[in-house]
Design brief:
The protein has 479 residues and is mostly helical. It is 78% helix and 0% strand.
Length: 479
């Protein structure tokens, strides 16, 4: 590698280097503070995220892969990295007061968030299966620890253990699929894999098995049925701020990799995986929408809600093409704001003597805290896909992409399940606005949380009013 290539590689990965360096420096800086200024570490972590976002936004490079063709800084990766920055930044803001209430206020919390962010950024830019796996493990290891960060809580310990065991199984399946692809094509670079598969005369059993293993591995990462079994327990047991982060960041990065691999590298063998993805998407919509109806814990309800939303996003993968990819990317951007927003409201319900994790705990919230109830209303309407919130247009453009590709029946089924899903969101709204409070609320609205709620709420409304602006950004990122 000559000097010019080295410089270009460093510039292309400058945001990742910034986040990784910041994480290491903050970890050492904590030794000077002696754990007395954890909130300052949080604000410095947020500053590192903002700095990386600015570097990513203004990074201008030729559309060529660096690091021997394994890493690329293109508009596609830039779009997804912005989603990761938003999710991480909002998580940090929502955590500053929450981890103090939960008595888990340690600076390692923010450092682990930065490590997870770095892994997601690497995944978004990776165009090689080995780098994809390395980024996946960097992200996963940090999230494992964050899931069990509340060591005194048995549910948190159980959630972390379940997540580690099942995630390790899925990673081994994924790695086996990668090894089969390498054995069949002689490469792990996505572009070269695509060229090699175009020359395949027929679909061999090993090729079919490799594609199935890859699909299974990534289906676990995005929590698609039947690989969703870990989601309800992990979401319920993890600290709520980490549940919010997990519901957006790792899910979005899973779709970034799915789009790169299946619509690029595995496009020549679409006949193998397309029908499988259709079945998985329908099963995910069905299980996520129906099981959420009977939940009494709001974190479990939102866990099944997130499963249902994965089903909608998979429909964009099925539609394929530039329109399908753009619709998935817009969906994930909107999902970031509305899910981080609704989980921020759940975090606010946590007081010194009150957890606020049962749906019944929201009874009469509008009479005690009308502002918080209004934000909750906006986010729940968005998740239900009710206009004029951004959630409506997130689903609308998925349906348009499906119909344009001739999947009218799939679009109709998705619309029906969207109506079913609206019921369990409206159930919470009814409790907030149609009933009197059953107990006093213990809510402390800190400045960072006000910022997080304000950003998420304004974004949900603004994107709902001007959706085409953001769809155009997604379309530019895939052309």
């Amino acid at each position: 590698m000559d000097q010019e290539a080295i410089v270009q590689s460093i510039i292309a990965s400058l945001p990742e280097i910034t986040v990784l360096t910041a994480a290491c420096l903050l970890l050492m800086l904590d030794l000077l503070f002696k754990r007395k200024r954890v909130a300052l570490i949080g604000y410095l972590s947020l500053a590192a995220v903002i700095m990386a976002a600015l570097e990513t936004w203004f990074l201008v490079l030729p559309m060529e892969a660096v690091y021997s063709g394994m890493f690329i800084a293109d508009p596609f990766s830039t779009f997804f990295k912005m989603i990761f920055y938003l999710a991480t930044g909002l998580c940090i803001l929502a955590s500053i007061h929450y981890i103090r209430v939960e008595e888990i206020e340690h600076s390692e919390y923010y450092v682990l968030l930065l490590f997870a962010l770095c892994g997601m950024m690497i995944l978004a830019s990776a165009v090689d299966l080995i780098i994809i796996y390395a980024g996946l493990e960097l992200m996963a290891l940090a999230v494992y620890v964050l899931t069990g960060f509340n060591r005194s809580n048995l549910h948190s310990n159980e959630a972390a253990l379940k997540y580690v065991i099942l995630s390790a199984l899925s990673s081994s399946i994924l790695l086996y699929g990668i090894s089969l692809i390498y054995g069949l094509t002689g490469t792990t670079q996505l572009g070269v894999v695509s060229d090699a598969l175009k020359m395949q005369a027929e679909f061999t059993p090993l090729l079919i098995l490799a594609v199935i293993f890859l699909l299974a591995g990534f289906a676990f990462k995005v929590a698609a049925v039947p690989f969703h079994m870990w989601v309800p327990d992990v979401y319920q047991g993890a600290p709520t701020s980490i549940t919010a982060f997990m519901s957006v960041g790792p899910k979005a990065v899973g779709f970034a990799v799915l789009l790169r691999i299946f619509l690029d590298a595995l496009a020549p063998v679409q006949e193998i995986w397309l029908n499988l993805v259709i079945v998985i998407a329908l099963a995910t919509l069905t299980i996520g929408s129906l099981v959420a109806l009977v939940q009494t814990n709001i974190k479990r309800m939102l866990a099944y809600s997130s499963i249902a939303h994965v089903g909608f996003a998979l429909l964009g993968l099925i539609a394929g093409g530039a329109q399908g990819q753009a619709s998935v990317m817009l969906y994930l951007l909107i999902y970031c704001f509305m899910n981080m927003g609704v989980f921020s409201c759940v975090i606010l319900m946590r007081g010194d003597e009150f957890k606020g994790e049962e749906i019944s705990d929201y009874t009469g919230l509008s009479q005690a805290y009308p502002g918080l109830a209004l934000f909750m209303l906006i986010f729940l309407f968005a998740l239900a896909g009710i206009p004029p919130t951004a959630g409506f247009f997130a689903k609308f453009y998925i349906f348009i992409a499906l119909i344009e590709q001739g999947y009218v029946a799939l679009a109709v089924i998705a619309i029906l399940f969207s109506a079913v899903a609206a019921f369990f969101y409206i159930r919470v709204i009814m409790l907030m606005y149609m009933h009197k409070p059953e107990r006093p609320f213990d809510i402390t609205l800190s400045v960072p949380m006000r910022i997080a709620l304000g950003v998420a709420g304004i974004a949900v409304i603004f994107i709902g009013i001007f959706p085409y602006w953001f769809l155009s950004l997604a379309q530019l990122a895939v052309t």
